[in-house]
Design goal:
Arc Repressor Mutant, subunit A; 8 strands; 2 domains; two-stranded antiparallel ribbon; 259 residues
Length: 259
């Protein structure tokens, strides 16, 4: 029992050191700071990494506090509750953009559509509620991935080092996806152009709960030439409207309100 308690104490110390650092940290620095052998530190860090409490950069090998630790306080939001808070804003977003609006939540290695507002025209459309989108090949999924980096591993294809391809434009390199996810966090929204379905593009932004955790993603999907310009870049006006809707839904869920 004493050894078990010692291991827990050491693991806790590793997390505290990483949390106090302003940048990713090497194994050697962790070992020196804690006065532990490198082999002991490595075993503890790898266990924490598997649990999602520590992240390791695949290029530099450096360690940082993991997204799993940051997500401990988050609890899944009931789909009906989410829809009830989002409905007014998703309807308005569909009317303003003239595109289909989707609200998605993370579920395992997929983004599940919790709410779908049809495009406001007379064209034939199929309900998407309950359908899924791949995390790495959809705007909705990228938003969810960007705020839960543990999910990158769950999104990998059966080969382990390559992500599943849905066509020519799908990002299949995990390193490239990682760079895209960093951009999503920096910009506050994600986009995809024909990564999942030919001729279809999407833009999405994060929905946060009262505590600030990303619990869903809201976005639009539509024809490539409507959502993107001639260079396949998302139209800025549409991205702005999606972000505004996401912020409005977040406020409805209590985000930004005084306790």
């Amino acid at each position: 029992m004493a050894a078990l308690v010692q291991s827990v104490a050491r693991a806790s110390a590793i997390i505290r050191v990483l949390a106090a650092e302003n940048q990713p940290t090497s194994l050697g620095r962790l070992a020196d700071t804690l006065g532990l052998a490198k082999a002991t530190t490595h075993g503890l860090v790898q266990t924490l990494r598997e649990a999602g409490f520590v992240d390791q950069d695949p290029d530099s090998g450096l360690y940082a506090v993991g997204a799993g630790l940051l997500q401990l306080g988050a609890t899944p939001l009931d789909h009906n509750v989410l829809r009830s808070h989002a409905m007014n804003w998703t309807d308005a977003l569909a009317a303003r953009t003239c595109e289909s609006v989707l609200l998605a939540v993370p579920e395992g290695s997929q983004a599940v559509i919790a709410h779908h507002v049809f495009r406001p025209d007379a064209s034939a459309q199929t309900g998407q509620t309950g359908a899924v989108r791949p995390l790495h090949a959809s705007a909705l999924g990228k938003v969810l991935l960007a705020h839960d980096r543990r999910a990158v591993g769950r999104a990998r294809g059966l080969g382990g080092d390559v992500l599943e391809s849905y066509g020519h434009w799908t990002t299949t390199d995990p390193a490239e996806l990682k760079r895209e996810l960093a951009d999503v966090r920096d910009h506050g929204w994600a986009a995809e152009a024909e990564e999942h379905q030919p001729g279809v593009a999407g833009i999405a932004a994060p929905v946060r709960d009262r505590e600030g955790f990303v619990v869903a993603a809201v976005g639009i999907e539509g024809r490539l030439d409507r959502v993107c310009d001639g260079s396949r870049r998302p139209r800025p006006a549409l991205a702005t409207q999606v972000v505004e809707a996401a912020r409005a839904i977040s406020r409805a869920l209590g985000h930004g309100r005084a306790p």
